[in-house]
Amino acid sequence: MAIRLADDVFRAPGLELFDFPPLWSGAPFWLTKPVVMAVTGAFLLCALAWAAFAKPTLVPRGMQNAGEIVYLFIRDQVARPFLGKDADRWMPLLLSLFCLILLWNFMGVIPGIQFPINSHIAFPIVFALAAYVIKIYLGIRHQGLVGYFRNLMFPPGLPKALALVLYAPLELLYTFVTAPFTHAVRLFANMFAGHLLLAFFSAAGFWLLYEHPTVAGAPVGLLSVAVAVAMTGFEMFLQFLQAFLFTMLTAMYIGGALHPEH
């Protein structure tokens, strides 16, 4: 995609935004900027959790107050609705998952970083695979191997012949392929598209107003900057929403494995 103004060409940002070489020549292929940012974010989250809960007081203040707000939000809006009496047991996983995904997403709007870690498909895939390994393990542990696949493939009330021919293959495909794939891609695709759009409007505004200013191009440049600012706010909402939805779906899958009758 290119926009021609006068004798110059504006080239829109593309997939090169997501192509990060190793940090130095000879470094392992996986040692890239997103990996370093992801590890840094994980350590930062540990530091924030330590600051919030290392020395709790009866009346929370500062970091403890913020930490408890996030904890109560995940407990009341995610864990308890799907896990019931098992909610507290799974809160460490769900809280950590939500906070880490949210922090990695917010890196896309932090000046100087401006790259959402989850726009690299490898990171959402790891989260999704971890959730599904836990789901299948719990399902087999609580229902038994035979019971798990029987409940999965032959729900009560459905004729056995119909279940065997139609329902069972589709349910197996959904459980082991489609569901984990969509769980990961939903997070990845939103972060990928949002980052690309923000980069486009920001680059267009910079190019039209600073690098190649013209009378005709100035209004378009100003509009591009305004759209970039508005989209930054919208993107932050989506970053929060995707972290919430990913965590909620994880809780739902765990709850379904623990309580298949529901």
TrEMBL record:
Q: Which InterPro entries match?
A: ATP_synth_F0_asu, ATP_synth_F0_asu_AS, ATP_synth_F0_asu_bact/mt, F0_ATP_A_sf
Report the superkingdom from the record: Bacteria
Alphabetically sorted, this entry's keywords are: ATP synthesis, Cell membrane, CF(0), Hydrogen ion transport, Ion transport, Membrane, Transmembrane, Transmembrane helix, Transport
How does the record classify its membrane topology?
A: Multi-pass membrane protein
TM annotation in the entry:
35-54, 90-115, 121-140, 187-209, 216-234, 240-258
Q: Where in the cell is it found?
A: Cell membrane; Membrane
Q: Does the keyword Membrane apply?
A: yes
Under HAMAP family, the record lists: ATP_synth_a_bact (MF_01393)
Annotated family: Belongs to the ATPase A chain family.
What does this gene product do? Key component of the proton channel; it plays a direct role in the translocation of protons across the membrane.
Name of the protein: ATP synthase subunit a
Give the species this sequence originates from.
Answer: Microtetraspora glauca
